[in-house]
Design brief:
five-stranded parallel β-sheet, elongated, about 325 residues, 7 strands, two-stranded antiparallel sheet, alpha/beta, Rossmann fold
């Protein structure tokens, strides 16, 4: 699907706000330096004066060597760094801050959309689940093994290690993860933790509940007016760096869904684009519910991560109720 003008304008406005915020932060840091580092403002003024004088002399017709100005500015810059560090500030204290260092918060690198812009497009078009909001409460900082014991704990620790390997080797090692097990054991949580880390590293991630994914495809498949939308949806699903299909099996499973799922897995495999699937199904249920070719594709091309144990949501809910009763 293509961005509407309003969606594009909203994204560009967000970039403008980012740049404005970082400029304001820089102005505040500069004021701190002026107030606490004697002589720094004088050097700033000397920089401006040297550049202005050089420009005026060029305009008046003098033939000047630009290297002279470059050497003057370099000398002043060294003096400024020396003053900063002697006053206890880091040398980069007055560097402009950027949310995205690659595009300097413009959304573009040359004429190409930056990876951060592409992710914003994904979020605008597909993120009904609000992945960014989910990552605030589902991330490795909040991950705990306190709800697992025995074999369940062994499986959890193995799954975490494989998830961390998946993240750390994402740029060089093509992998897929199939996270399965009983209800409430942390499968969706783990997938969102992975998404959180890869988003921070500038990768494009599309996150869908299984129901939401196949509803989107079917809505655009069976309405002839949406053929262009459907092509764009397929392009995005097949090309994003990571696709997460959460809770496979909760959708209304039929021949259409099975066909679309296989097509998606097959296309992404051919393009070496990573996929994570989470499900409450056992491997036997997966084979019985979907086609043998989907079962074969998953068991051949995905690392299988099994989680087991109590329903963590129920455990937390019970603990909260007991805490409230005590009060």
């Amino acid at each position: 699907m293509a961005l509407s003008n309003a969606q594009y304008d909203a994204i560009m406005h967000e970039y403008e706000e980012r740049r404005s915020l970082h400029r304001q932060e820089l102005e505040e840091r500069l004021q701190i330096v002026y107030e606490n580092v004697p002589g720094y403002k004088d050097l700033d003024d000397e920089t401006a004066t040297a550049s202005a004088d050089f420009g005026r002399r060029l305009l008046s017709g003098e033939k000047l060597d630009r290297q002279i100005l470059r050497d003057t500015l370099a000398r002043i810059a060294r003096q400024k760094v020396m003053l900063l560090t002697e006053a206890g500030f880091s040398p980069d204290f007055l560097d402009m801050g950027y949310t995205c260092q690659d595009c300097k918060d413009t959304g573009y690198i040359g004429n190409e959309k930056c990876h951060c812009f592409k992710q914003k497009i994904i979020e605008s078009l597909y993120d009904k689940s609000n992945l960014r909001a989910l990552t605030r409460n589902n991330n490795f900082r909040k991950m705990s093994d306190e709800y697992y014991e025995g074999e369940d704990l062994v499986r959890f620790r193995k799954a975490r290690t494989l998830a961390e390997d998946f993240i750390n080797n994402f740029d060089t090692d093509y992998q897929n993860l199939f996270i399965y097990g009983t209800v409430g054991t942390g499968k969706s949580f783990l997938s969102i933790c992975i998404a959180d880390e890869l988003l921070k590293r500038g990768h494009s991630v599309i996150y869908f509940s299984s129901i939401g994914l196949f509803e989107l495809i079917s809505e655009n498949t069976f309405d002839y007016r949406n053929k262009q939308n459907l092509r764009s949806i397929y392009d995005d699903l097949f090309e994003c760096e990571l696709l997460i299909i959460d809770d496979l099996g909760t959708e209304m499973t039929n021949a259409f869904v099975a066909s679309e799922l296989f097509s998606c897995l097959n296309e992404r495999e051919g393009r070496k684009k990573s996929t994570i699937i989470t499900t409450n199904y056992s491997l036997e249920q997966l084979q019985n519910t979907y086609s043998d070719r989907i079962f074969s594709r998953v068991t051949s091309n995905f690392k299988l991560l099994k989680l087991s144990g109590p329903d963590i949501r129920k455990v937390k809910k019970l603990a909260k109720k007991e805490s409230e009763d005590i009060r």
